[in-house]
Design a protein that fits this description.
Blueprint lengths: L1 H6 L18 E13 L2 E10 L2 E7 L4 E4 L10 H27 L7 E11 L6 E8 L2 E7 L2 E4 L4 H12 L2 H25 L1 H4 L6 E6 L7 E11 L5 E6 L2 E2 L4 E2 L3 E2 L5 E10 L6 E6 L8 E4 H36 L9
Antiparallel strand pairs: 1-2, 1-5, 2-3, 3-4, 5-6, 6-7, 7-8, 9-10, 10-15, 11-12, 11-16, 13-15, 14-15, 16-17
Length: 339
């Protein structure tokens, strides 16, 4: 079987052991999303992720790996990466062929999508954990546990059929276990070592205030924007004096293109209560300091701008009116005499 052949290409790649420098569990996973349109047309997207940071992507048709960061190679040699490219290419062919075969055996129907995630997670002080999960049409379908493929509870007969095909390759299952439960942790520790300076960098956040859509008459939606910070953990809160103001809501963290993060913190308040509020930001890059933005100052700045602009608008209008009046007097309209 092609699936057995591709797994036999696995090479065990050495890694470092500096994971203790990172205080939270970290994971690396390969993700492939495949869209099956018919027996001869499919689309595959492949990527590699260190936690929430994408580190690799590849062109599935050729298996070419693209390194998104200078340290994405970890401590692997070029020869080892070439072997891995061959592995990924054959994996894409062999694994997906099983799903095409399932269609021909009337177990699946075109079109459909398959999502695969395989990798490992380091729990410091405990043994590392490998995992392989497969989803069909966005729902859990298969998983790899104890050297065997198992159908998900809601996978039904379709998942059982695919598991039977995969489990028929005994040697392949052993190599697959070695790849994700032994090789992956070593790869991950080497990647952490190579990217240590980047991953542990401290980038100070920038913060500013604005208003969102009005939640109702006499109310304001205050928005505190915080952007460009790294690492991800951050504390942002609307305060009244030294007390946290109840009702603060946070958006999801959004990634910036440079690997930093962006966050919005909202507060729905009575307009008359907004003047005494402030947004506080605490982050590891700030040390013992914090960023404090006072809404009353933000509001006062708006009044200052308004106070400057409005007289200029009035003066411009007055000048235009005077010029028009002067032009009328200088060149009054005259009536031509009738012949």
């Amino acid at each position: 079987m092609l699936f057995l052949q591709l797994l036999l290409l696995v090479v065990l790649l050495p890694g470092g052991d500096n994971k203790d420098d990172f205080q939270e569990p970290v994971s690396f996973q390969l993700i492939q999303i495949s869209s099956f349109y018919n027996h001869s047309l499919e689309e595959n997207l492949g990527s590699g992720w260190l936690g929430e940071l994408q580190t690799h992507r590849w062109v599935s048709n050729s298996g070419t790996i693209i390194f998104l960061w200078p340290w994405s190679k970890g401590n692997f040699s070029n020869e080892e990466w070439m072997d891995l490219e061959d592995l990924l290419h054959m994996f894409s062919i062999g694994f997906l062929q099983i799903f095409h075969n399932s269609v021909s055996q009337r177990q699946l129907e075109y079109p459909f999508k398959v999502q695969l995630a395989g990798g490992c997670e380091l729990h410091f002080g405990e043994a590392s954990v490998g995992f392989i999960r497969v989803a069909y049409q966005g729902s859990d379908f298969l998983s790899f546990q104890n050297r065997a493929w198992l159908p998900s509870p809601n996978g039904g007969s379709r998942a059982q059929h695919v598991c039977t095909l995969l489990n028929s390759a005994t040697v392949a299952r052993e190599i697959l276990h070695k790849l994700f439960f032994e090789t992956c942790p070593r790869f991950l520790t080497g990647l952490l070592d190579a990217g240590k300076a980047y991953l542990q960098r401290q980038v100070r956040p920038e913060a500013w205030l604005s208003t969102g859509p009005s939640p109702g008459p006499g109310r304001l939606m205050l928005v505190c924007h915080v952007s460009g910070f790294h690492p991800k953990p951050i504390w942002v809160m609307w305060m009244q004096g030294e007390q946290e103001y109840p009702g603060t809501q946070r958006s999801d963290f959004l990634p910036n293109a440079d690997g930093t993060w962006y966050l919005q913190v909202f507060l729905d308040v009575e307009a008359i209560e907004a003047a005494g509020l402030s947004c506080h930001v605490r982050h590891s890059s700030l040390g013992d300091q914090e960023i404090i933005l006072f809404w009353e100052r933000h509001n006062s700045m708006g009044l200052i701008i308004l106070a400057v602009i409005m007289p200029l608008v009035l003066l411009t209008g007055l000048a235009f009116w005077l010029r028009k009046r002067w032009t009328y007097r200088e060149f009054p309209s005259t009536s031509l005499p009738l012949e």
